[in-house]
């Protein structure tokens, strides 16, 4: 049995609008409005802010009408906790349900508690990025972007509005990054466009700079080295002085220059990175994708020198492997260890230490950390070994093709 929601009906009548007019304004059917007022169903969460505005009442008043006017027999019609989970997430991802609760009990439609939790989730995902398969992260990030999108219709202060845009910008950047890793070019570009829009509307130069740097990496993986160089420098123009993105985009510039064969400018870029990194200490959570730490500079130095054919790459590659293996005794290597093994292999090939190069390549392929966007780097090593007619070349090619088939990126 249902007893209806007289408070919702009275609010509508006080505005002198019909059920049909209200339905049109909140973009639902007239029958849906009748069901809301009769207590046969409850408004979906994503329309409640708009509904409250059209009725001329606060979100808190609307929630009181929805919940207070509903008898126990109709409670099953209210959204379940599973409906609050991000779209595409697994059943055990219940963070969104907690966020929805924070939103409802806050003084505003969004509230500080909700924004703080979203900001914390951005940090957690940026840290998980180093050791989690992009195919696992992608649906989680997509779910939180959908949640941010639903919040856009909510009433909020100017400060909350900007914070929400900043959060949306970081989620969009992460989405673009994992889709670059998955080699989903069009999806990655869409994420970068969204990140740019969020950054522009929030006036957030750091996100804008990270967007250019991320796009530079995408072009680098597609062998558009001139484009990558241009975007790396554009990122530095927006980067706050001394920030992680200033260092990262300078390092990205060095990698593009190595591919272009401009050693003089490459070494100048590496020198700038070294100067910027020198005052840094290893942070408490060093694997955060958007926070630079000294280990990253060692890894980038190894890659850049390996691409330039500089034998010194071996020293840097061995050093980063040693540091990161020491930091991860559980064997859950960050992705940089696999990349460093590929860099080490290139350096060893350049000095004709082919057996060691094959061993380093096998370590990278077997690690489960080579993502699709880096397959080309592994292919370069395999092709270099094959060109030298080594007996191990067949086994190495088989391992590479098996990695491709399985899509390994655990």
UniProtKB/TrEMBL annotation:
Residues in the signal sequence: none
Domain HTH cro/C1-type per the UniProt entry, residue ranges: 8-62
SMART domains assigned to the protein according to its UniProt record, in alphabetical order: HTH_XRE (SM00530)
Domain of life: Bacteria
The protein, known as: Multiprotein-bridging factor 1 family protein
């Amino acid at each position: 049995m249902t007893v209806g929601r007289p408070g919702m009906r009275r609010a509508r009548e006080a505005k002198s609008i019909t059920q049909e007019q209200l339905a049109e304004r909140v973009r639902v059917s007239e029958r849906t409005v009748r069901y809301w007022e009769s207590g046969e169903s409850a408004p979906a969460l994503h329309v409640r802010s708009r509904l409250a505005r059209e009725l001329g009442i606060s979100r808190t008043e609307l929630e009181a009408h929805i919940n207070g006017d509903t008898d126990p027999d109709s409670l099953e019609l209210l959204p379940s906790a599973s409906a609050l989970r991000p779209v595409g997430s697994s059943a055990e991802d219940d963070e969104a349900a907690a966020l929805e609760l924070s939103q409802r009990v806050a003084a505003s439609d969004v509230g500080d508690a909700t924004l703080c939790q979203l900001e914390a989730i951005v940090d957690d995902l940026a840290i998980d990025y180093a050791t989690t398969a992009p195919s696992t992260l992608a649906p989680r990030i997509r779910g939180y972007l959908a949640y941010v999108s639903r919040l856009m219709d909510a009433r909020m202060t100017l400060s909350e509005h900007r914070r929400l845009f900043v959060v949306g910008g970081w989620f969009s950047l992460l989405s673009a990054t994992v889709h670059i890793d998955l080699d989903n070019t069009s999806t990655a570009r869409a994420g970068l466009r969204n990140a740019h829009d969020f950054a522009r509307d929030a006036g957030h130069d750091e996100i804008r700079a990270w967007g250019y740097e991320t796009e530079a990496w995408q072009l680098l993986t597609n062998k558009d080295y001139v484009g990558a160089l241009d975007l790396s420098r554009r990122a530095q123009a927006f980067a706050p002085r001394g920030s992680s993105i200033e260092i990262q985009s300078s390092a990205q510039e060095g990698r593009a220059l190595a591919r272009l064969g401009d050693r003089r400018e490459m070494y100048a870029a590496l020198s700038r990175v070294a100067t910027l990194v020198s005052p840094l200490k290893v942070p408490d959570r060093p694997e955060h994708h958007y926070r630079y730490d000294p280990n990253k500079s060692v890894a980038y130095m190894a890659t850049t020198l390996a691409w330039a054919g500089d034998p010194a790459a071996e020293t840097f590659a061995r050093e980063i492997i040693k540091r990161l293996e020491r930091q991860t005794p559980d064997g859950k290597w960050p992705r940089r260890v696999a990349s460093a093994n590929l860099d080490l292999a290139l350096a060893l090939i350049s000095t004709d230490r082919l057996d060691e190069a094959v061993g380093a390549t096998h370590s990278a392929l077997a690690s489960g950390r080579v993502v699709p966007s880096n397959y080309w780097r592994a292919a370069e090593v395999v092709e270099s070994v094959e060109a030298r007619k080594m007996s191990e070349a067949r086994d190495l090619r088989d391992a590479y093709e098996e990695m491709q088939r399985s899509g390994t990126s655990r």
